[in-house]
Amino acid sequence: MAQEDVFKKIVSHCKEYGFVFPSSDIYDGLGAVYDYGQNGVELKNNIKQYWWKSMVLLHENIVGLDAAIFMHPTVWKASGHVDAFNDPLIDNRDSKKRYRADVLIEEQIAKYEEKIDKEVAKAAKRFGDNFDEAQFRATNGRVLEAQAKRDALHQRYSDAMNAMDLDELKQIILDEEIVCPISGTRNWTDVRQFNLMFKTEVGSTAEGASTIYLRPETAQGIFVNYLNVQKTGRMKLPFGIAQIGKAFRNEIVARQFIFRMREFEQMEMQFFVKPGTELDWFKSWKQTRLAWHQALGFGNENYRFHDHEKLAHYANAASDIEFRLPFGFKEIEGIHSRTNYDLSQHAKFSGRKIEYFDPETNESYTPYVIETSIGVDRMFLSVMCHSYEEEKLDNGETRVVLRLPAALAPVKLAILPLVKKDGLPEKAHEILNDLKFHFNCKYEEKDSIGKRYRRQDAIGTPYCITVDHDTLKDNCVTLRDRDTMKQERVPIDSLCSLLEDKVSLTSLLKKIQ
Ligand code: ATP
């Protein structure tokens, strides 16, 4: 099946099984805004818990924060967002579609890279075990030609972005003969800057109202609270502040479902360090964050770092963790060395002294910052995409199964009486009333047992237990494993400890400790 079709299926699965709905669905939705349904909210909460606990529970020197979405408007002047949080946009006059000029060029660079990869894959197949990839890349004519084109384009693009030369960005699009995917034409407008922040007004009268912004990142809430937390928590450097919350960006191109939204959620941690140590911490946070992703068991080959060449105005190093989605490797998380830019700017604009007194060296300085910033929704999407499978069974049937990591699954255990009579529902409820304090359980008695198993497979429930007539005699139930579909008889008394090991967040967290 083409990857595009797989993605479409995942999107409709998300709707059909109560994970993600378009916002205001009965009014035909609102572009790039989505609601999380009964199963989606559980999965999302579990992802947030996994992140929160990995930060705040597992690190003695990281504490949490929940700052307001509305902030003093000067915050966004100081941070540079009012002047520089722009994307270069371009319109195609024929299709009337709007694109990000930088993304069009990056996709063109990726096309050259794909071409090279295809040549390498073809040769690897032809030469088998004797294939020397490094030598092939260094000598093959077609590869060298594509590589040279890619490098030249990349250099030109980086220069244009660093200088924010909008005419040059347009010229690159024309020279590379990039066409609009909808109209197929090269009838492009000029490239313009577009600020991504949403504005609104605070205050009840028109005269007294002032413009404020919906935060485009949660990080600034942490920076403006640095002094509060450091002083009241008596925090010593290095220390971190973690926060989960909504962010808003008026994205130019909002496609790919919950990958690029206008309202989304971020999990950000700002780690304050002594100046001069920041690049070591940057390296170490890259590894810590990669390990967090890898512990989910989605295969290490599906992750890669993408080190930035064009750095944001505040950074002295930056890298993304990318994950293989059905539409290619895409950024899920950014790790940035933000220098002391934000704290210094806030000191300047607020007139406050925002520093740290180092008791070891008896000096005061503005801390440097390493940021780890991950989108909850993108993480959700990567979990969904990796877990969705249409499995062919031995009996010729196909089942849709969500192989979610058990600790993230919305429902951990489905409790199913074999029939709706003979005291089985009562016994099943007895078990439910005990286990519901430990796990998210679901009780279901409608339809055949086979159909009920399929419904649980489709929402990723790792275990089902069936209560049958023998249960009333031997106090045992049948435990069915979602992935292997194997069934075993287990005593009701042992269920809690048996499942705790398999489905709890604690087991997952222990993997990264
Ligand atoms: P992109 O280049 O894809 O626009 P970005 O580099 O602007 O992303 P950051 O500002 O580094 O993103 O934000 C940190 C994280 O927040 C991203 O890695 C991503 O997971 C998430 N994120 C950013 N923008 C969006 C969005 N519009 N929708 C959903 N998640 C987002």
List the SSEs and their pairings.
Elements (H helix, E strand, L loop, with lengths): L2 H14 L3 E3 L11 E3 L1 H20 L4 E4 L8 H5 L2 H4 L1 E6 L6 E3 H27 L5 H7 L1 H23 L2 H10 L16 E4 L3 E4 L7 E4 L5 H5 L2 H7 L6 E10 L14 E11 L4 H17 L8 E5 L9 E9 L2 E10 L3 H10 L5 E3 L4 E3 L2 E8 H12 E5 L5 E5 L10 E5 L6 H12 L5 E3 L5 H11 L3 E5 L1 H6 L1 E6 L5 E5 L3 H9 L1 H8 L1
Parallel strand pairs: 3-9, 19-20, 19-21
Antiparallel strand pairs: 1-2, 4-5, 4-6, 7-8, 9-10, 10-16, 11-12, 12-13, 13-16, 14-15, 17-18, 21-22, 22-23
The protein binds adenosine-5'-triphosphate.
Adenosine-5'-triphosphate binds next to strand 10, strand 13, strand 16 and helix 13.
Notes on the structure:
The structure is a single chain. The mean pLDDT is 95. A hairpin with a 4-residue loop joins strand 14 and strand 15 (363-365). The chain contains 18 helices and 23 strands. It is α+β, with helices and mostly antiparallel strands and 513 residues long. Strands 3-9-10-16-13-12-11 form a 7-stranded mixed sheet. It has a 5-stranded mixed sheet with strand order 20-19-21-22-23, sandwiched between helices. The protein has 3 domains: 1-69 and 216-392, Bira Bifunctional Protein, Domain 2 (BirA Bifunctional Protein, domain 2, 2-Layer Sandwich), CATH 3.30.930; 86-195, 2-Layer Sandwich (Herpes Virus-1); 403-512, Rossmann fold, CATH 3.40.50.800. Bound molecules: adenosine-5'-triphosphate. The site of adenosine-5'-triphosphate has 16 residues, from strand 10, strand 13, strand 16 and helix 13.
